[in-house]
Amino acid sequence: MQINEIFLDRYHITELIGSGGFGNVYRATDLKTSQEYAIKIDVKKRNQTLLESKILLDLQGGDGIPKLYTAGKYADLSYMITELLGPNINTLKEERGKKLELNTAVTVGNQVLDRLEYIHSRGYIHRDVKPSQFLLSMNKKDIYVCDFGLSCKYFYGNSHIPFRGHCNRIGSPSFASLNLHLGFQCSRRDDLESLSYMLVYMVKGSLPWNQNKFENSEKWQSIYALKAKISPTTLCNGCPPEFEKFLNYSRGLKFEEKPDYRYLKSLLSNAATRDYMTGYLEWLPFSEVSGKRKRKNQKNKSFGDNFEEDSSLDSIPSSVRKARRRSVKTKTIAPDDDVMIKVKPRRSMSITKLERIKDNDRKEKNRNSSGDSSPSLIVLHRVKRTRRKGSMGAQSDSPQMNFSESPTLNPSESIERDNFIMRNLMPGLNDINVSPFCEIPTRDDNTPRAGLPQILNRGILRELRKREKIEGVGSETVKNITKKLRDEVKETSLKNESSESCILF
Ligand SMILES: Nc1ncnc2c1ncn2[C@@H]1O[C@H](COP(=O)(O)OP(=O)(O)OP(=O)(O)O)[C@@H](O)[C@H]1O
């Protein structure tokens, strides 16, 4: 196939976008519709692409599975036409200084885990999990899985395939599981072990066995020797401890055992840094990451997923983005004898400003971690704006923030949202985390009963009491502040029922 050739009298081949062991993948434009596609052509003339297209057909409809448009034979070549996708993770990693940020690796890992769970749920294993098999969608937000050339069924009807030794070694030795090296029949566990190598590879930039160049004939053997010798702790050195747990868990799975995907996801969530946001990918602008969160929640809700599973938590709901557009009025409280009560007027923040804050967030955190620990108290009153006469539409008419309105909120998200607000609206107070102190009253359907102010107040008051107990220093002062705050909030809510108060400590 040549560039500029017209394939099947219809597709204009414009670029060779990838080539692998079995075929070449071309970018092509449909002359009828001008739509772009990816065409994979089996260069080895072994009908491999046709076999692959059958598996892809079986998997159609899953998230992150490329759409299959058509497949067939042309002369002695087999081909399939699929949705055109963006660059693969390996290419991106190379382009971005040979390493990916930990949080990017966590998002990629999470999505790859979802893809594998889906593929496994359809009775298949991928058998060639490696970074170059995972492609970004054209908008660079979602991870798609490609290349089912080595995939096979592990479940027929109701039974798992039987264990077998002396199997051919297939796939990429760098990411192959130890069992695959030993010629054992692959099952779900092997896909997951490969994913653990992929996680380490993304964060560290390479795997220990990538350092040497091996002759093709001895590649499998030499890599196996290194892989089997190196301890998981050494391999995962420089990565969060959860990566090591991930690897140990995958290696410890029995041949037929169903992996606990939820546990693995929780490991990934814990591996991320504190300011991680679901869907975070280092190449996405901040505002687009927030968008991702909303869609994900909606999807999870409609599929009835347990929110814990999505409790890679930390995302920013749309309500927060709305909050940026709100003006915030503040009120001064008379300073206490011992404690300085600081009140800052805040104007609405532009998205650009919040982006900048987020970028600086990590730096500031480091700077502030050893910094001033004296408490500063900030009371914000978010006051409902009066309706503009003659303005149309409920949205524009009532610009006040009402967090409890959000239909997709669950308690853990709301904690994360509150933390996000604290960190971003008050960038100087980076190490505040209300989560452990929050009491979130929930309705039967798990949505929070209280809005942001109540949640924060409760958390902060409890924190004050805790300090009172633990520190025992100035407990009188702490009590006074607590009382003062309570009175203040009560008073304000009585005065103006529609106002929302947010106390940050
Ligand atoms: N739908 C697609 N859109 C854009 N690029 C694609 C698409 N499918 C595959 N590619 C690119 O082509 C490369 C090779 O594709 P693929 O892995 O399917 O071929 P292969 O011959 O099976 O490769 P390998 O032997 O490396 O596994 C991929 O890494 C990817 O970068």
Automatic annotation (TrEMBL):
SUPFAM superfamilies recorded: Protein kinase-like (PK-like)
GO MF annotation: an example: ATP binding
Lineage: Eukaryota, Sar, Alveolata, Ciliophora, Postciliodesmatophora
Region (Disordered): 294-331, 350-413
Record-given protein name: Casein kinase I
Domain Protein kinase: 11-287
InterPro entries tied to this protein: CK1_Ser-Thr_kinase, Kinase-like_dom_sf, Prot_kinase_dom, Protein_kinase_ATP_BS
Source organism (scientific name): Blepharisma stoltei
Transferase is among the record's keywords: no
Biased composition (Basic residues): 381-390
Composition-biased stretches (Basic and acidic residues): 353-367
Pfam families for the chain: Pkinase
Bias-annotated ranges (Polar residues): 393-413
PROSITE patterns cross-referenced by the UniProt entry: PROTEIN_KINASE_ATP, PROTEIN_KINASE_DOM
Entry superkingdom: Eukaryota
Keyword Nucleotide-binding listed: yes
Keywords: ATP-binding, Nucleotide-binding
Record-listed ATP binding positions: K40
